[in-house]
Amino acid sequence: MNMETQRDQMRELGRSRGRFEAQAKVSGRAEYIHNLTLPRMLHAKIVRSTVAHGKIVSIDKSEAQAMEGVHSVITSEDIMTVMPEPYFGPAFHDQPILAVGKVHYVGEPVAVVLAEDPYIAEEATHLIDVTYEELPAVFNEVEAAESKVVVHDELRPAGTFPDLKHLAGRRDTNIALDFQVRTGDVEKAFAQADHIFEHSFRTQQVMHTPLEPMISVGELTDSGITVHTASQSPSFVRLEIARLLRWPESRVRVRTAFLGGGFGAKLYVKLEALAVALTMLARRPVRVALTMEEQFYTITKHATTFKIKSAVNKEGRITGRKCTIWWNGGAYADIGPRVTQKSGFTAPGPYEIDNVWVDSYQVYTNLPPAGAFRGFGITQLVWAYESQADIIARELNMDPVAFRRLNMLREGRPHATGTIMRDAGLIEVLDRTAERMKWDEPFDRGTEKLRRGRGVGVGFKALVAPTTSVAMITLSADGSCFLHMSTVDMGQASNTTMSMVAAEVLGIDPQGIKVIRPDTDVTPYDMATLGSRSTFHMGHAVRLAAEDAVEKMKVLATQLGVPEGEPLEAGALLKKRYGMQAGNIVGVGSYIPEYISPNKETGHSENITPNWMIGGCGVEVEVDTETGQFRLVRMENVVDCGTALNPKIVETQVSGAAIMQIGAALYENMEFDEDGQLRNASFAEYKIPGITDLPEQMGNEAVDVYQNNGPFGAKGVGESGAFGVASAIAAAIEDAVGVRLTSMPMKYETLCRELHANDPKFRQWGE
Question: 166-185 burial, b if ≥16 CB within 10 A, otherwise e?
Fold first, then answer.
């Protein structure tokens, strides 16, 4: 059966279905770890560093310890009695559970108060006196790359991921990882170029803002310890906790529930190690729950500086490109090295360029640590290379869509890394974005005071690989079906989609499938819920598990003499086999995609990713030429997610990603003073987009480009809607008033200054 026929014959998949968990969520019945209460549970509150870089001279906890209702005050010395090497992290074991000897950023956990009541614990934190010997600090990623101020004296590579096995500790430097791509002869391309364009673009540090703050609860059990946690990666948490305790994984159980948002904030170990250590020390359950403000000090999105230089011939083709990206990783690496590598090789953009030079640097600074964030670094890159695409097109008097179409990578052509583009709808996404914007039709440019402009942007992303997903399908004698998987539903409706995948194979109603929540004692391994990998990885695993169950039913039917071609029903087969309602049929599926790690010297790989995720955005803005204030009039988002398994959910994922990126593009910015103190760690001062900030018109579409190696032709979509948003907004502003903004967030006052830069009265007012 060919792919098109297979697609036409799908029963469940391809239909728009509402989320199966919606009723539980709106009625308040849905389980969240935040609501968990255990008998004799203690509450933990964290004392945080007030300096960006310094030696801890002393910690006076006597007054807090004596406060009524306080159980204990814990420092790193106490932690090390249960975890002798109290350092964690997916790339480097560089982050201490509580600061050991030094602090590396304002807000780093230094001590913890345990009390019966969270308010008593919070009050007691103010009675702890920590004395520091301040050290010089570094905050800017470009400066830090060359600075003599070194954040870490030594590093311990984690060795967790196959593609990061080459990591090594570096003394006397703040560079945690450098990744490079070398293709062709870049210097020759620049020497022969008709035009050379060189620009620098900047993005800011932002926070994930999940509405359910981070929380972990530790609980001692007869067999070991259970960690109840709001995590996107329960399997990884179990592995890391077992390593820290020097226990076998069988003694560590990690369970989660629905997440009230994650977006990368709840990946790998965050609070879990602290909750476990405190539980071990107190011998009682301990709850560690952050406030919304504390999340700002826990994990962020990388601020970046991106320098891009392009060689262009007279026809408008890009013949060479040199990219240098500095990623502000903050005080600890987290998953930043992987972001630097995986995103770094897409830095030249979705264009066919024969000569490419990329240097991508993960840099330590004395700011809160940065990690994965919806887009995995791609939004920062698209902002730069698509902004320059518009600048080039304007300078060459070319239509920006035509310029992109001329240079776009085609099916079957090699990417700069050497990987052939397969099933990548770049042209389809670009063309549909332009069509939805009515790009070739007359456009109303407004009035002298209120000018209108349009812009487009297209970005692409490689899948995070190599990673593994495993699923189990259990069919019971009464016909019940259970799906066991460790993919975490954090709002992306993965439980619904995976039920539909299983139902497609089994020929049953997907709403009748019970999805077992992630629990490492019950559900099989899944690396993590991140990077739009779940549909591709877990989708395959669920498909294989369901097919395995079907094959086992066929074997059983043959043994029982069931005529070939008769419908297979697990309940009927089992009752016939055992003579009663008994037994199970269990199907198991395990999936890991093919992947070849890039050459360290060239960045080349014949198979650097199993698929490409693509997103395009078109924007129309209206700009007030007097004040610089602008508003989004219209936005069109187009993605390639292969075959949309559930179009309704795809649409909400696309619009959610786009809205999130509107926040990063226009409003969100973690503002630090000269000492590294965050000034706006609350929603009172940290602006995220509301309903009035959205465009008047907002459309979403998924082009139909079948992913031949995907489960039923599908691939992920959680990030694609964010890719082209920022650059499209900047392009629309420039199209309206001729000013190109190169730093995010794009602010009204910045545009106003640029518009009136030559006005003497304005200059005087600005001063």
Answer: ebeebeebbbbbbbbbbbee
What is the 8-class DSSP label of residue 184? Answer: S
Domains 3-30+467-591 and 33-137+208-295 share a fold: no
Among residues 289, 252, 255, which one has the least CA distance to residue 270? Answer: 289
Residue-range domain boundaries for the chain: 3-30+467-591, 33-137+208-295, 376-463+607-760
CB 403, CB 350: distance < 8 Å: no
In DSSP notation, 106-171 reads TT-EEEEEEESSHHHHHHHHTT-EEEEEE------HHHHHH-S--S-S---B---SGGGTT----T
| Structure-token pair, residue 717 | 């979509």
- Hey, what are 722's tokens? 């964010």
Residues 201/743, Cβ–Cβ less than 8 Å? yes
For range 318-334, the mean pLDDT: 98
pTM of the predicted protein model: 0.96
Longest dimension (CA), the chain: 94
Please provide the CATH number assigned to the domain covering 3-30+467-591. Answer: 3.30.365.10
For residues 673 and 208, the answer to whether their CB atoms sit within 8 Å is no
d(CA 605, CA 410): 18
Q: For 204-236, how does the pLDDT look when each residue is reduced to its tens digit (9 = 90+)?
A: 999 999 999 999 999 999 999 999 999 999 999
CA–CA separation, 62 and 129 (whole Å):
9
Class of domain 376-463+607-760: alpha beta
E-only strand ranges, 401-541: 450-462, 469-476, 481-484, 513-516
Give yes or no for residue 720 having a pLDDT over 50: yes
Per-residue pLDDT tens over the stretch 124-155: 999 999 999 999 999 999 999 999 999 998 88
What CATH number is given for 33-137+208-295 in this structure?
3.90.1170.50
Residue 345: Cβ within 10 Å count:
24
Question: Does residue 721 contact residue 640 with C-beta atoms inside 8 Å?
Answer: no
Torsion of CA 648, 654, 660, 663, to 10 degrees: -120
394 contacts: CB under 8 Å, gap ≥ 6: 400, 734
Q: How far apart are CA 548 and CA 550, in angstroms?
A: 5
Query: Which CB contacts under 8 angstroms, 24+ apart, belong to 420-423?
Result: 421/612, 422/611, 422/612, 422/708, 422/709, 423/611, 423/612, 423/642, 423/705, 423/706, 423/707, 423/708, 423/709, 423/710
| Percent of the chain scoring above 90 in pLDDT | 93
**Chain segment 1-49, per-residue pLDDT in tens:** 444 555 567 888 999 999 999 999 999 999 999 999 999 999 999 999 9
Closest CA to 708 of 598, 637, 612: 612
